[in-house]
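May I ask you for just one protein sequence along with its C-alpha cells in two labelled lines?

_____
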Amino acid sequence: MSRVRRRASVIAAVLAVALPVMLPASALAATPLPTPVTAGGMPTPQVDGIVFSVAILGNTVYAGGRFTKARPSGVAPGGAGEVDRHNLLAFDLTTGALLPWAPDVSGSTYTSTTSPGPFCKTVGTNTYDCDTVFRIKAAPDGSKVYVGGDFDKISGQWRSRLAAFSTADGSLDPNFKPTVAGRVRGISVTANSVYVGGGFTSVNGVARTRLAALGLDGTLQPWAPTADGEVFAVTAALPQGRVVIGGNFQKLDGSAHASVGSVDATSGVIEPWNPLPVTTSVVTDIVTDGNGTAYLGAYNFVVGSNPRFEGRAAVDIASGVAKWYDGCYGDTQAVTVTNGILYSGSHSHDCSALTDGFVQSPSYYRLIGETAASTGPSAVTYNHVKAGDPIPTMLPWYPNTNGGPADSYWKNGPWALDSNSQYVVVGGEFSEVNGKPQQGLTRFAARGVSGAVNNGPQTPFKAPVLTKNAGNPVITWTSTWDAQNPAVTYQVFRIGTSGPIYSVSQQSRPWNTPTLSYTDRSVTGGTYYVRAVDADGAAIGSPQATI
C-alpha cells in the first residue's frame, strides 16, 4: 500500500483473521465468466497534469483534475495541437476527439503557514493556489454535469467548490451556486438532490460537517449526517433508501463506522453497516450496480500493517453485509462496474487469495478486472480473507500504465474510471499506457466496437531452445501471456514445410508462463520458430532456431 508514500510494498506476514459475517457462498452457480473489454489503449486526448475524475454521459466524456493543457494522442508536451484546458475538458467517446468545451477553473491565491498539501499548487513562500477538480457526476436525466473540488471561480464567475453545467450547450448553470466552506470530493446526484461530501464545515453559511445535500437550485436541504474525517465518496442508492459514504473517518454521524457506512437518504439517520476487516483503511470510491450492491475501493494508511483492506469489496446495500473481499494488497483509487465486471485502478501487487490471482509481485498491476459476483470460496487464508470465504475471479484483462512522470508526487497511475456497456475510460497521473507515451487519459473498447485495439500475445517471445531426443529435434519454448485472453494457441513451424507441424493451446498469465515442448519425429534436424495466436486473431512469432 501507499498513497502518498514512495516505497516498494513488502508483505511482512500472512495472518489469519476473522472477517465480519459475510453472505453465504453456498451453491454458487457455474456460469461462464464475463468477457472484459479489449486491453489496447485507444487514441485519447492527453493532459499535462493529473485527471482525478471522469464521467461518461452519452457520447461525451467529461474529465476533471489539475492540468492546464490538453493535446492529441501521440503528441509530446508542447507539440502541435496542444490547447489550453484548465482543470476541465470534454472529448468524444467514440472518436477520442477533444471537444471545444473549455471552462476556466481557478482558485484564489492565499497565504498560510500551514501547507494545504500536494493537491494544491505552491506559488510562493507560504502562498498557495487550490483549484483542483476532484469529482464529476451527471444528473440522472443527463441534462447537467456537476463538478466539485477546491476551486472558487469558473470562467471568472464565483462558484465555491461546487458547480453545474448544462450538457446541451456546456454553459455554467446560473442558478446553482451554493457556497461550500471547504473541499468537495464526493458527489451523487438524484432527481431531486445533490449529495456532497468532502472536508467542508458549512454550506450556504449553515454548519455541515463534511456531508450535505442540496436541491437542484442550490438551496441547502435538512439532510445533515456528520463524519469525523474527510469524505471521499458519496453514492445515493435510492431503491434501498440509502446514501453510502466512504472516506478517511472513524465515526459516521457519531457512530463507529471506520471508512464506510450508510445513512438514510431522507433523514440522514445512520443505517446498519458491518465494519471493514480493519479500521486503518480509507475508502476512495463507491459505485453501485443498480441492483442493490455497492462496490468499494480503498487504501490502507498504516505502513506495514497486516492484515489490511486496500483492495476491493462488494457489499449488500440494504443489510450492509459484505458479499466478498478480494484479499488484494495494493491501493485502489477508483472502481467502475459494467456487464458483470468490476474494473479498478490501483497498484495491486499481491492477490494471492483471489481466484486466478497472483502472488506477491515486484510489478504493479495498475488496471485489473474481476467478476462483480463471487465465483466460489477462497482456497487459502491470506490478508483479511480466510479459506472458505466467497471471492471473485480475476479476469484476463492486463493493460497497464506507469505510475506517472518523474516529477509526479504520488506515482499512483490511475485515479479515475467510468464505463458503459462498450467502453472503459481511465484518468490519472500516468504518462504511459502499455509502454507507450500517453498522459492522463486513455480508453478501452469492447470487441466489435469500431476502433477497438487488441493487445494480444506479448513480447519478448524468445526463440525456441532446440535439443535432440533419440536423434529427433525437441522444440522447447516458454509460453507468453496475452493481455486480453486467458489462453494462447502455439503453432510450431519448420522452415520448408507448409503450415504448422504442431499446435497446442495453453492457459497463461503474466505471472505464470509454462514451458512447452514438441518432438519432431519426422526429421533429424531443421530450422524452427513458434507462432503465438490468440482468440482475437492477434499473433506474434518467435525468432528462428536451427539444429
